[in-house]
Amino acid sequence: MSTGAGRSRSRAWPRLLAVTIVTVVLLWAAFTLYTVGQPLLGAIILGLATGFAVIFGSDRFYGSRFIFPGIAAVLVFIAFPVIYTIYIGFTNYSSSNLLTYPRTIEVLTARGTVDQTTEQPFAIAADDGEYRIWLPESGLLSDPVTLTEEETAALSPAPAPQALLDRREAIALRDGLSRLTLETPDGQLIRNAGLRSFALVIPDYVQTGPDQLTRNDGQVLTANHDIGFFQTEDGQAVSPGWRVNVGLANFERIFTSAGIRGPTVEIFLWTFVFAGLSVTLCFAVGLLLAVILQWEHLRLKPVYRVLLILPYAVPSFISILVFRGLFNQNFGEINLILEALFGLRPNWFTDATLARTMVVIVNTWLGYPYMMLLAMGFLQSVPEDHKKAAVLEGASSIRVFFTITLPQIIPPFLPLLIAAFAFNFNNLVLIFLLTRGLPDIPGTVIPAGKTDILASFTYRLAFDNAGQQFGLAGAITLLIFVVVAAISYANFVAMRRAAARRLGRSA
Question: Which CATH architecture has domain 254-506?
């Protein structure tokens, strides 16, 4: 027994060593994330480190080792992005509020105005890996500096050094020069004012209190932690600002600001219309083609089947870009044909109704093969006896389809239709590649287009705009998440009821 226990311990040592190393690395990563201002992700990594150490370090949780990687992936790649996005929706995070409060103070106090009357040219002397700054007009030479970090060096009278770098070599050191401060014999601090000169730089802002800055014109700025900006006495905000929690302010903007509420409601309604039309048309076209392909007298069925499935086989982004060229208003083949036949040249990309029609047409083309493949399988499961009995009763082919075939394939189709609706609800790729949301909705204070759906609208709001508003985009994303969650729940209920019906019939 003791020999077996000794062997078991000897086998456990490599595993425990590996667990210790991985746990230490994860703890170090969690601490690093916390120190760089990512406490939420750091907390998740800390939890993963604890779980990894417990589950893989003890034999009591041997069974949990097989599901732990999946749980870790869900936490890092699904839970964290969702939680972080929701959190952003309650902040003022934007292109004007990217920094922390201490960093904002550093940026503002680092700004300065060059006193052009004190500008003087400089040269650089190299000496065994160190450098000296030479000011020929005043005959001053600096102490040795490395030009690799923030440095302050004293200037003192000295003769001109022998080995001076040429202008090209000096320009290569511009990053280090920008971090260098030189102190003249009379106590003035001068900084690099360009590629050719040093000068006295007057700070634009000086911190004069815990939440107070004074501008060089005497104006006092006070930190407003409710909006994340320093403000002048008359309430003018000074950029950059810092991130603060604003509660429900972003949601209030969505529902109360006319310039935001109007386009948001319009895009919200169009998203439902777009998803509904896409699912309906894809289902109708796919089912119609599946019924035609099942006609027993149709010749060359394999050829037709391959040709009709081709849109599903070609990557969607290629098809979308091809359609963008086909619908080109000036040189597209569709307009050339319409002009030749009917004298029409529709403005597909500038007219809102035509642009939305184009989007639905392209999405139907991309989606009908999937519905056709499903319908071909479901049609096979409809009993022929039911159809023959209806025909013997005198029912027409159309009536047989709508009273016998369609009611029997709808229940298994329903969960897939709901899933397709949820997919099209967030079909960002189609909108982004085909129209980019254009044409724009007039009279808005945010980027919003007539063909935008909520996903593309949120993307443009967060990333495709000079005034990127991540907080507002996060609030809209939360609303999208709620809607998609409701659709997913409906999908679950539909699947459960369809399964119950099948069980009832089999019983």
Answer: Orthogonal Bundle (1.10)
